[in-house]
Amino acid sequence: MQLIANLRGWYEQGWLRAIDLSLAEYLYSKLGADAEAVAVLAALVSHQLGHGHPCLELNELWQDPEATLQIPPEHASYSSVHLCASATEMVAALGPAIVEQLAQSTAVNTLNSPLVLQGQERLYLRRYWDYEQQIKQDLALRMAQQEPIATDALRETLDDLFGVATTLSWQRLACAMAVRSGFTVITGGPGTGKTYTVVRLLATLQKHRADAEPLRIRLAAPTGKAAKRMEDSINEELKRLPTEYSDLLTENQAVTLHRLLGTQSRSRAFRHHANNPLLADVVIIDEASMVDIEMMAAITAALPTTTKLILLGDKDQLASVEAGAVLGQLCDEAEQGHYAANLAQWLNATLTSPAVSRGDDVGAQESIMLADDLIDAEGASQWPYLQHTVMLRESRRFKADEGIGKLATEINQQRTAWLREWLTRAEALTREDAKLANIQLLQVSKNSAASFKALVQQGYQPLQQLVSAGAEGFHDDAAWGEALLEQLEQFQMLAALRRGDWGMQRLNELATLWLNGDRVTSEQWFVGRPVMITQNDYSLDLRNGDIGIVVQRRPDEPPRVLFRGHKKGSLRWLLPSRLTHVETAYVMTIHKSQGSEFTHTVVVVPEHDTPLLTKELLYTGITRARKQLTLVCANPRLVLQATQRRILRGGGLT
Ligand SMILES: Nc1ncnc2c1ncn2[C@@H]1O[C@H](COP(=O)(O)OP(=O)(O)OP(=O)(O)O)[C@@H](O)[C@H]1O
């Protein structure tokens, strides 16, 4: 019972969740004392799920128990560390024969057993093992679906839509790949043309559709905000198509994934599943980095294998908070291509326009084709998902050597030389190179610093003015509402953490005080308060992450919270009393900002290091900025440390 007692010690210090401990206690009571070590490992698998890992990576656990389990956690007090067993002691106490014990246990790898052991490497809770298996089997079926398509005809269409190639066009390559395959991943940073490509893909598919019937297209994203952005940019891009192609397509609505699959009250299951599939020809999912393993399993189960599934997203962004970095795993090593020779040959044939291939300019021809170092003789067997993946590499929004693009790229590539210099003398560097003008560094030692307060006040001043001006200067309430919601996207502060002096909660208190004086607190429903929904509310049709603002339309009316409606251009004005799970959103966490963009984004890095400060976190925060980025930090060294730290998520998808 000593092992379980150790676990209980961890639980009492808040290092383990109640659900993790309960699982161990339940298995111990069912299987008896001989299975205590197995029961403890089950609790550790469950603990890992809480940290976003779909399984427990056993080799990592044996090598470095503290780092693998993050026990003791960063916030652990000195006294608690001395009260509890260490992770190393716990692992040692499991005994040397633990892997054999696992393999022989009735709790592992038997019919409907709670645990599944894969090889000697990974231990899963059965539900997550099932999700992973289902996704793998489903994707294998989709990847095997190859649409026969005449290369010459396809090349002509691609010439119309992307122009005759003069250099290697990754966008065109992605389009060709997705035309042929039942499953495609198009990954790329902000502004690399994922939407541009996918709109041209839809036009290509419609043009080459044998029966000429309109394609049944469904667009979806993990959050309401991301869905709205997807819908706007796809419909905007449709207008830019040559008329011959834009006439083939109509505008489409994008919905959240929950809506796509059909949520049911009081049930985790969706309305659409393998026995009630969602009928569509093409399903496109944007911001796929936020899709967790459970949702991916639900999506793949609900779509017939004849439906073309296309995932769009930035593989370098933070993964979903829930377990499983699906996109990250599928795109592992996408930079290197790893295309099988026959696939590369076919792709090259769609790229090489007849004008070039007829000529004798071999150099010109080669420059538009996949280079040899992207071709891998082992590609098909070693990298099956990469045969269906294209990474877009050129951002049209941020040039790689300009401000936001430069900072994001250096951090993403974990390069510290230029970053160190910028953190030491940002202003001087900007004077020397005007291209850096859209990034600023604000180094302050305290969160009460006057320069930080001025940044917050100036940033939110236009929003405050719009709130207090009221609807009068506008054509009607709707025009005012639209202006308010647009203004909410102009300036946003993002915190790396929730707690602490530089965490989201404290900064919201400060911003509330600086912007409204001490007549209100950040928890109250004051007019002008921006709010974020923190839990899905199906009865009100509001989603976790939706953003609104408290406003008063007329003096004789009570304040209402303004949100964007689900129908295009519609607004909702809800009474605050109807909303239960909200928090003030002058400042939001970087995690919650995924899928959104703001004209001027302020990223706040805390003063103490924590394992949560990673390059993925910084990259995600920085790339939320559309035109201007301010990095606020108390200790520039932490930015360098975070850049050198990566999130490693386990899982056996690949
Ligand atoms: N090949 C191209 N030629 C001309 N313009 C392009 C091309 N590719 C992309 N663009 C333009 O660049 C801008 C960004 O492209 P797009 O919105 O498709 O990128 P994205 O990867 O979807 O961005 P996000 O990360 O914001 O979703 C758009 O205005 C688009 O029209």
TrEMBL record:
Gene3D superfamilies: P-loop containing nucleotide triphosphate hydrolases, RecBCD complex, subunit RecD, N-terminal domain. In the RecBCD complex, RecB has a slow 3'-5' helicase, an exonuclease activity and loads RecA onto ssDNA, RecD has a fast 5'-3' helicase activity, while RecC stimulates the ATPase and processivity of the RecB helicase and contributes to recognition of the Chi site. Its EC number is 5.6.2.3. Keywords: ATP-binding, DNA damage, DNA repair, DNA-binding, Exonuclease, Helicase, Hydrolase, Isomerase, Nuclease, Nucleotide-binding. Heterotrimer of RecB, RecC and RecD. All subunits contribute to DNA-binding. Belongs to the RecD family. The gene is recD. A helicase/nuclease that prepares dsDNA breaks (DSB) for recombinational DNA repair. Binds to DSBs and unwinds DNA via a highly rapid and processive ATP-dependent bidirectional helicase activity. Unwinds dsDNA until it encounters a Chi (crossover hotspot instigator) sequence from the 3' direction. Cuts ssDNA a few nucleotides 3' to the Chi site. The properties and activities of the enzyme are changed at Chi. The Chi-altered holoenzyme produces a long 3'-ssDNA overhang and facilitates RecA-binding to the ssDNA for homologous DNA recombination and repair. GO terms for molecular function: 5'-3' DNA helicase activity; ATP binding; DNA binding; exodeoxyribonuclease V activity; single-stranded DNA helicase activity. One of its GO terms (cellular component) is exodeoxyribonuclease V complex. InterPro entries: Coronavir_polyprotein_1ab, P-loop_NTPase, RecD, RecD_N, RecD_N_sf, UvrD-like_helicase_C. This is RecBCD enzyme subunit RecD. GO terms for biological process: double-strand break repair via homologous recombination. It catalyses: ATP + H2O = ADP + phosphate + H(+). It is an enzyme of class 5 (isomerase). Residues 12-124 form the RecBCD enzyme subunit RecD N-terminal domain. It comes from the Bacteria. It comes from Pseudidiomarina terrestris. ATP binds at G188, G189, P190, G191, T192, G193, K194, T195. Residues 585-632 form the UvrD-like helicase C-terminal domain.
